[in-house]
Write a structure and sequence with these properties.
CATH class: Alpha Beta
Distance between the termini: 16 Å
CATH superfamily: DNA polymerase III subunit chi
Radius of gyration: 14 Å
Low-confidence stretches: none
Number of domains: 1
Strand order of the largest sheet: 3-4-2-5-6-1-7-8
Number of helices: 3
Shape: globular
Structural class: alpha/beta
CATH topology: Rossmann fold
CATH architecture: 3-Layer(aba) Sandwich
Helix content: 25-40%
Largest sheet: 8 strands, mixed
Length: about 140
């Protein structure tokens, strides 16, 4: 499993996820986006629908009918009823991913940076886990570690 840490300094999760999600879908995977706050999930859902004028990223809430059909599922829990193999933790609150996930995008900001540092150390020694650190440099995302 790859765990990709994204330090949000300028962009918010609602801005970054519409950039990450198309890559996941293009690889034939489904995405589960987890955030505790309903308002944040709603903002992410709206951003995915309106990401680009020529396209949209279909998504839905886990509590809605036909959640299993959604290519991008928004939930407060790590429960990939849509068969997702990619997980985005959008609120900086780490949740243990299940074995079905091949990639985890862990998005955190200044308010959750200390918790992210603890997760970085915690996953360091896990067998089968590769980690990467991404940050913004003048608005562009660059791999930092």
């Amino acid at each position: 499993m790859r765990v990709l840490f994204y330090q949000l300094s300028r962009d918010r999760a609602e801005t970054l996820l519409p950039k990450l999600a198309p890559r996941v879908l293009a690889e034939g995977e489904r995405l589960l986006v987890v955030a505790a706050a309903e308002g944040q999930r709603r903002a992410i859902g709206e951003a995915l629908w309106s990401a680009a004028p020529e396209s949209f990223l279909a998504n839905g809430e886990a509590a809605a009918p036909h959640a299993d059909r959604q290519p991008i599922l928004l939930s407060e829990d790590v429960a990939p009823v849509n068969g997702a193999t990619a997980l985005a933790i959008a609120d900086g609150q780490w949740r243990e991913p299940g074995a079905q996930f091949t990639r985890v995008f862990f998005l955190f900001d200044d308010a959750t940076i200390e918790a992210a540092r603890r997760v970085w150390v915690d996953v360091r020694g896990r067998e089968g886990v590769d980690k990467e650190f991404w940050k913004q440099d003048a608005g562009k995302w660059v791999r930092a570690g």
